[in-house]
Amino acid sequence: MTFEELLDLASRNVGGSVVAANDEFFAERDNLINPWAPTFTPRTFGAKGQVYDGWETRRRREPGHDHAVLRLGVPGVVHGVVVDTAFFTGNYPPEAAVDGCRLPGYPSPDELAGADWFPLVERAALHGDTRNRFTVGASRVVTHVRLTIHPDGGVARLRVYGEPVPDPELLPDTCDLAAAEIGGRVTDCSDRFYGSPGNLLLPGLAASMGEGWETRRRRDHGNDWVRVRLAAPGVLRLAELDTSHFKGNAPGWARLTGGDGEPLLPRVRLQPDTRHRFRLAHDGPVDEVRLDIYPDGGMARLRLYGSLTAGARERLAAQWADREAGGG
C-alpha cells in the first residue's frame, strides 16, 4: 500500500478547513482542500488575471515567504503529503515546507500562530504542474498543518494522507465503526473500475454516483465484494447499505459476513437509489467485515453501527495518550 491509498485527513470531504493564509490575491486558499482533481481552462480571465483552481499569492517584492494553515478534518498520524502544483507552470513556488502541530479543541488563527509546530516535510524543491510527493516519518498525532511556500506562487491542492487516530472520549457509545474518519478502512476489493471503494466509508451522503463505489459489468458467474477493517473491534447492531444515485446499476442483492466468515446479514434484496437499514443479530465482536454484492454494480455508502468492546476502548485510549506524547 502506498501512502496515497490512506485517507486524506485535510480533505473537505472529512471536514478539513483552511483557517488562515497570509495572502490569497490571485486564487483562494479554500481550493487547497477541494476533494476533486484540479482543473484549468486556458484564457479564462477575471479581474485579477488568469483564473486558477488552487491557492495563488501575489509576486513578492521583498524577502519572505507565504503560508496557509489547515485544520485537519480528523486528527491523525501523517504518513505522506502531496503538494500538487497542477497547471501552475511559470508561477509555482520553487520550494515548500510542511509543518504540523497538535492543539486541543478549535483554536483560532492567533492561537495557532503560537503553537509548537514541528516539521513533517523539510523545505524541499517543487516542480511545476506536478504532484510533488513526500513521505513523512513522524509518529505524533497532528490536528493542523501549515504549508509554507518559498517565496510565493501557486499550489493547486495539498493532500495530507494518514491514519486517523480518534479521541475515545469523543466517541459515543454507539457509532459507525466502519467510518473512515475514526479509522475504518478498505483493505481489499474485487473491482474498482468506476469508483474507489474507500468512498463507501466517507462521511455524509453521496451527491452523485461519482462519489460512490462502482464495479464494471460482470460477464461471468461470480460477484463483487469489498473487505473493510473496522476502526476497532466491536459488536455490530445495524447496517446501512446505501444505493443512492445508483438506479440502473445498483446491485440486486447483498450479504455481510465477519472476518472469519461468520454471518452478519444473510443475502438480502436491494432496491435502486435507496438507503437500506438492516438489524444485525450477531452478538460476538468483529474487527473486519466483508460486503458481497450480487452480481455487480454500485453503492454510495456502507455504515456499520455498533459499540466498541471494553478492551478496544482501552486500547484506543492508550493509543491516543501514546501518540499525544509523541510515541510510535
UniProtKB/TrEMBL annotation:
Which pathway does the record list? Nitrogen metabolism; (S)-allantoin degradation; (S)-ureidoglycolate from allantoate (aminidohydrolase route): step 1/1
Q: Which domain of life is it from?
A: Bacteria
What catalytic activity does the UniProt entry give for this protein? Answer: allantoate + H2O = (S)-ureidoglycolate + urea
Q: Has the keyword Hydrolase been applied to this entry?
A: yes
Domain Allantoicase, residue spans: 15-164, 183-307
Pfam (any one) = Allantoicase
Keywords (A to Z) from UniProt = Hydrolase, Purine metabolism
What GO biological process terms are annotated to this protein in UniProt? allantoin catabolic process; purine nucleobase metabolic process
One example of the protein's molecular function in GO is: allantoicase activity
Query: EC number(s) for this protein?
Result: 3.5.3.4
Q: Which NCBIfam families does the UniProt entry name for this protein?
A: allantoicase
Protein family membership: Belongs to the allantoicase family.
Protein's recorded name: Probable allantoicase
Organism taxonomic ancestry: Bacteria, Bacillati, Actinomycetota, Actinomycetes, Micromonosporales
- Which gene name belongs to this protein? alc
